[in-house]
Amino acid sequence: MDGIWCLLFLLPLLTWASAQNVHRRMEYKYSFKGPYLAQKDNQVPFWTYTGNAIASEESVRITPSLRSQKGQIWTKNPTNFEWWEVEFVFRVTGRGRIGADGLAFWFTNAAGVEGPVFGSNDQWNGLGVFFDSFDNDNKRNNPYIMGMVNDGTQVYDHEHDGLTQQTGGCLRDFRNKPFPVRAKIEYYKNILTLFIHSGMTNNDKDYEICMRAENIQLPSAGHFGVTAATGGLADDHDVLKFIVHSLRSPEDMAQLSVNQEEEEKFKKEFDQYQDKTKKAREDYLAQNPDAARQEQKEEYETGEERELRQIFQGQSLIAENIRSLHQKMDEIVGRQERTLGLINNIGSGAVAPGGGVPPVGGVPPVGGNVVGSDNIRRHEVDALLNNQRDIVSTARDIKNFVNEIHQKSNQLLTKSSAPQGSAQPVGYDLHVTLKEMQEGLNIVKRDLGSANQHLQRIPAGGGAQGCPQANCVSTSMFIGFIVLQVVLLIGYSMYRDSKEAQAKKFY
Ligand SMILES: [Ca+2]
Ligand SMILES: [Ca+2]
What we know:
By secondary structure, this protein is α+β, with helices and mostly antiparallel strands. The protein is 41% helix and 21% strand. It is globular, with a radius of gyration of 28 Å. One calcium ion (CA) binds next to loops. It is found in: Endoplasmic reticulum-Golgi intermediate compartment membrane. The chain crosses the membrane at residues 477-495.
């Protein structure tokens, strides 16, 4: 469990660290976004769309929610950069509890043609990332997100949702989310990473890693594309934003900077393109005063919209606080481990007499005359060590419980936001989950109490042996957050139930 935790925290850090020296350039000729995504002639600049796809000012509807539809949009030109990152914002919405078939992101050596794999052709050469809504193999593992690299020979195994063919993937429900769902796909130095933002909040930081694979060989130049398909069941598949950044290492940049002129030309071209888009927008508003009024009207919201927005803001705040709690827990664990290391050093006599221990982080230095004097005896050091170990393990337990509660609250939210089948009693599930949460809370409370006792048992004034005070979270604050969250959750799910009951009257 701890390993997974470390991995979860380390991976984004590693990616972040590796991204520090990477030069990113927005590639507007491979991107689109609103407003005025489609121009007056309904074309999307630098892209071609076909099939049932429709482009509007704000989004590209790859398929409407009608049966047996297929739509595609592909870049006109192949890429002229080797490594890239794509931010891809979309919505999959439908009235059914289950949707179909799904949406696909592509990077292939040639633009695809209409076919059986989420609207595009099979046996592609390159990468496909599938947002698969429909559970063809009935393993109850959809909606599923997966990446699949193909060298042009493999035939996609539709009947088993490509289960054995995937390069990696994760189980995420991306349908009917309050905010658009986002995917970030990064291909840099043959490492493919996929991050998903669940669309439960509007916070840019809420990306989670979905898959990571090394030694991936993709075509050095290719076309980006998005396709979708519906079957007997249907969803709207809308892409709101597709932003490509090219990634270059410092070495690549050194080579490129020889060609400064080209860089300047690109910047000028991009500025001109932005001016053109802005002017087109202004012209349109001048010619269509109705649209301008409509735009102003959208600034106002109804009471219901406001309530919903406030609930989500509250939830985002709670999620933010839990995230910072996680960070503090990690910090505490880190500090305790460093302290343990220091004490071990003292125990094994690694510190030279009179040398002192170098101060690490917020831990005050241990007096230089510790070793050699009779201030600390062996059994005291052992007792201290045991205490510290207990604290570390209790802190880990608390972290796990916080995580569990966070997951449960997410499940609750997902359950209350997913349309319910008539055979499933909602109240029972909710009751059981609340009961579990209550038990979880009691255990957290008990553990916090025992952690407190441990801290008090440690002899005061012992220098390095005390807990770093500034970073300990107070029990009442912690319990306060949890209680606030539970109240908000109950309120929200009651609100949702009543909305659903109202909505059902119309069907
Ligand atoms: Ca499927
Ligand atoms: Ca499946």
